[in-house]
Amino acid sequence: MGLGSIFRKRSPWLLHFNTGGCNGCDIEVLAVLTPRYDVERFGIQLRGSPRHADVLVVTGPVTRQTKDRLIRIYEQMPEPKIVVAVGSCPASGCAFYDCYNVLGPLNKFIPVDAYVPGCPPKPEALIFALIKALEKV
Amino acid sequence: MTFVLPVGPQHPSLKEPEFFRFEVKGEEIVDVDIRLGYAHRGIEEAFSRRNYKHNVYLAERICGICNVVHSTTYCQTIEQLAGIEPPERAKYIRTIIMELERIHSHLLWLGVAAHQIGFDTLFMLAWRDREEVMDMRELISGGRVHSATNTIGGVRRNVKLEHIPEMLRRLDKLEKSTGYYADLWGSDRTILARCSKVGVLSKDDAVKFCAVGPVARASNLKLDIRRNDPYGTYEALSFDVVTESEGDVWARGTVRLREILESIRIVRQALHELPSGPLRVPVELKIPPNETLERTEAPRGELVYYARSNGTETPERIRVRTPTYGNFASMKSMFIGGTVAEIPIVMWSIDPCFGCNDRATILDARTGKVSVVNFKQLKRWRR
Q1: Which domains does chain B have, with CATH numbers?
Q2: At B337, is the pLDDT very low, low, confident or very high (cuts 50, 70, 90)?
Q3: pLDDT at B382 over 60
Q4: Helices A24-33 and B120-141, axial angle in degrees (round to 10)
């Protein structure tokens, strides 16, 4: 393990992108950052720019309009990048699986490292997925 | 010479995908365009392909933050369509979870608003106390966010007798901390400097742009569907409609904070007066041809559901109008004349919920150019 990945594992920065979900998962992603769950103790912080981020947290099914932005954001992130799909929507489409503007699950467009099932998943599950995904670094 | 400043669809100040195009002259905002539809999934079309029972789950997933009010409004609409009256106990349980949702939504707003003005301590404090509400919701329904409590003809989950003392204890704790935040919101220098006289919406403009919910109430419009067009149990419960006269970001925050206190009062009353009886009535899903409209007060304002049935188990058409959509028009008059630094807090001050809103794809008109946009132009801009 190189020096870079040792430090990356201790301070993974997140980028959160909603690809058109109901924002139920978004508020759970935010709850993970706040005092009760507080992922900052693992060095995890939410960042605004894809160029600073190590982990892309995607919520929501991929809609026609967000598809290009999603791929652009993914390409802007520096290597190595980790993608965590939060909720049932990026995994299967959830209740929107047959809606006309939903293009399909996330792994049709970008490679996914960890799935967190649930509608929405509990914050504990989200933390577990982040820790699991970081083992890949 | 103006400069275009794009914000979105992925931006630190936005939690959801949406695109805003600001035209700025130095620091001053002279125009704003809103490009909607990034979260457009096609829910209304999907409504007419599934049966009434399945649609409860779809209605709930229009918006995660206000899911209970969406499913309640949907169920009330279908009950009205079919001529069913839910039992009294179900109505009270609906009121309790709806008001808990309002508390959680307003605390969420307070936290993110504090984050937008760089006051992260208050963000963390507000979200810490919000967990109390999430616990109460988990206690009743088993889910922190999506409650899945409503069903056509009543509710699926009960408020158990042993839960009531626990809930009252948590409500006391919440009341205390909300009182503290309300004091802080009115006295802290940072908050006053960033929120007072910022993003002002006058009463006339609020009427003109059809503002709804806390935005309208902060501009001194006494609009609350719970009082103006009572549904469920709201006629039997006593609460005040909170209004403020300033119309700025500070007033919108004050309205929301005082509404939390009112909601706590409502939940307490509902817990004390909770009648006994059945939770739901049986429902015949084949609803004869009929149409109806239902309005409720969501945390963000007026929520409208329209439904038409055709004698089968699936509805012919369901139309939803969400409060954020009603408030977008008034955003323009809040932004123009302001500065770039105000963008995040003014944007957040209407409590935008794009998941709710983006069921219609609309390209907003650029009315800031002093010309009035006619229907033809609007049609041309539509995609």
Answers
A1: 10-40+327-381 (no CATH), 43-324 (1.10.645.10)
A2: confident
A3: no
A4: 120
Full-model pTM: 0.91
- What's the token pair of residue B50? 């599934």
Give the mean model confidence (pLDDT) for residues B31-39: 81
Question: Domains in chain A and their CATH numbers?
Answer: 3-134 (3.40.50.12280)
B65, A34: Cβ pair inside 8 Å? no
The answer to whether the CB atoms of B41 and A35 lie below 8 A apart is: no
Q: Quick check: A120 and B144 CB within 8 A?
A: yes
Instruction: Please say whether the beta carbons of B234 and B226 come within 8 A.
Output: yes
Do the Cβ atoms of A36 and B128 come within 8 Å? yes
Phi, psi values for residue B158, rounded to 5°: -105, 150
B291-319 per-position pLDDT tens digit: 999 999 999 999 999 999 999 999 999 99
Which residues of A fall below an 8 Å CB-CB distance to B?
A: 15-28, 30-31, 34-36, 48-50, 60-61, 63-66, 69, 73, 94-96, 98-102, 119-120, 122
Closest C-alpha to B67, from B139, B128, B118, B141: B141
Pure H helices in B152-188: 163-187
Query: Cα angle at B334 between B371 and B382, to 5 degrees?
Result: 50
For residue B16, list chain A residues with Cβ-Cβ distance below 8 A.
18, 23, 26
Helix H or strand E segment including B119: none
Sheet holding A55-59, edge to edge: A45-46, A13-18, A55-59, A82-86, A114-116
CB spacing of A21 vs B58 below 8 angstroms: no
For B76-99, how does the pLDDT look when each residue is reduced to its tens digit (9 = 90+)? 999 999 999 999 999 999 999 999
Q: Which of A35, A50, A66 sits opposite B9 (nearest CB)?
A: A66
| Residues constituting chain B | 383
CB of B48 within 8 Å of a chain A CB? The answer is: no
Spatial distance between the Cα atoms of B358 and B14, rounded to a whole number of angstroms: 15
